[in-house]
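Input record (Table S2, row 648):
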Amino acid sequence: SPLLSWSPPSLTGWRRPWIHPSGRLGSPVPPLQQTLNMYLKCTSHLITEEQLKKTKAIVEKFGAPGGMGEFLQKKLLERSEHTANWVYDYWLEDMYLSNRLALPVNSSPVMVFPKQNFRSQSDTLRFAAHLISGVLEYKSLIDGRALPVDYARGQLAGTPLCMDQYNKVFTSYRLPGPKTDTLVAQKSTVMPEPEHIIVACKNQFFVLDVVINFRRLNEKDLYTQLERIRKMSDIEEERLPPIGLLTSDDRTQWAEARSMLIKDSTNRDSIDMIERCLCLVCLDEPSGTELTDTNRALLMLHGGGTDKNGGNRWYDKPMQFVIGADGSCGVVCEHSPFEGIVLVQCTEYLLRYMRGSPSKLVRAASMSELPAPRQLHWKCSADIQTFLTSSADKLQRLVKNLDMNVSKFTGYGKEFIKKQKMSPDAYVQVALQFTFYRCHGCLVPTYESASIRRFQEGRVDNIRSSTPEALAFVKAMDVEKMELLWTAIKAQTNYTILAITGMAIDNHLLGLREIAKELKLEKPELFSDTTYATSIHFILSTSQVPTTEEMFCCYGPVVPNGYGACYNPQTDHIIFCVSSFCDSAETSSDLFVKTLEGCLKEMQDLCTKCNTEAKPADSTKRKDGTTKVMKNGSNVHKCLKNMSHCKC
Ligand code: COA
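Output record (coenzyme A complex):
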């Protein structure tokens, strides 16, 4: 493993500024006309002729010489001269902090670990102690600037990537606010200062100091402390209301509850301890459900609701390690400080650490007199009780509403696609477009996250995968057109390169919109146009999160009538995690996955037929889901309601 065999680079490696080929620091601002042309290209086939005519006129006016677009572009360029990353603040606010939706399902992705086999409670605690030990190791690598610098893989491989996000893994906190949240950062230090984690058990929160007297607790100490916490949580008379449920509510509601809560000094102290912890370890009760991949994904996403482990969480903290007594384990991640790829690096390190470093429970000496872990106390007024009841209700609705399907497509994997000389990521994206078209008879604005960590403080931009070329291909699939598959793959790959080199349109348009707001100018018509609203309503929200360990990532849809589709391509198979909401009559995760399998097989057949060189051994017959009836009783070839104006 590159992480374990790696020796520390020089500090300059870690601190190196990310220099754009043009010689500039940070990401480039794309040329205005390029973005406007691309905007029209990305939306024109997804809207009506009439709307397109209107939008074309608006875009032309915006981009005219001496017009608003040129003015805003100049301001953006000025901004880019004096900020490390001109889009970072705008993007963080727009993507996360101003989003009022509840964090579970809607925002926080999860990593699902392979199912563990715990035979006893001590097994569970041993696993937890081992994991915490790994977390402390990993944190000391981050603090000592000793993590290897990541390099881009796949397209345009080899560029060093910005490592800033790692500094935020154990030091951030998302503070809820009435209108917008704040991402609070604690200073990270190399000195072993007093540090603690919070252990959640039976909806109670306990402070577990992990550095005492300048010494990090060893695994045996950690185990001893966890055992004490377990015993304390068993005392029923000491049980307090499940305050963690408040953090699962929508952000404005939680902000309101929090300001009421901190009026009391006991609550203020408890909240302060949680906000300053390194991470949470949630010791969950057995879920009582069959631990299939899909059910374990659900348990990570929402804890199974109030009657299971829904209250055993604190969603504002970026890292919550969940260890279920029944073996259902994983990580819940508050997404605003870092991307899924950083989460994967961290969790893969931990899994390898646990596999490679045997538990040190027997050999290590325990501190003789460890101070007892402390339970956090809460004073719950009647108002807080009312908030709790409402948060519990909403979480239950979220739990009932999530329609999830985790499936392993075993027909083929990356290897077959590479043999076709195609980018596996582009291929999967085109397959997702094909699937959506088969399910709904149209294409919709699609989001695919593209890393821009090549640039300083770079996070992501969007690859708009529903390209006109993809539409041409999916429409032609009935007559099997290999050439159109090639064109669609090429369009997708070109867009990917555009995005990862900082030339995509979403961040740029966001920058133009936000700088106009900052300058207190009237909102340009471009951004009040229906096309713009449609273009950022991402019915299909996708992301590649590859892993080298046996685990997978998943998340919920970002709009009520949408799908979340996370995929993990492996050599000979691909894991798909598809989510949607049950109360949307248009969507169905099961149907989507079934159709996807059929589409992937059809694409394989097409490739195999047209390329005898790359004939796979296990080519299977076509199997599509076109006759499947949707939840609303309609046939699958049906446009989504809000896209009924679309032309396809
Ligand atoms: N022929 C043969 N092989 C090809 C090929 C072609 N035409 N095109 C690509 N490949 C190979 C690549 O060299 C790479 O090889 P490797 O497995 O040996 O590294 C492999 O196929 C994968 O490349 P590709 O499928 O093109 O994807 P990618 O790895 O470049 O990923 C993105 C594309 C957009 C997903 C990636 O750039 C990115 O941004 N990832 C981050 C996504 C993210 O942020 N996720 C988390 C969100 S929370």
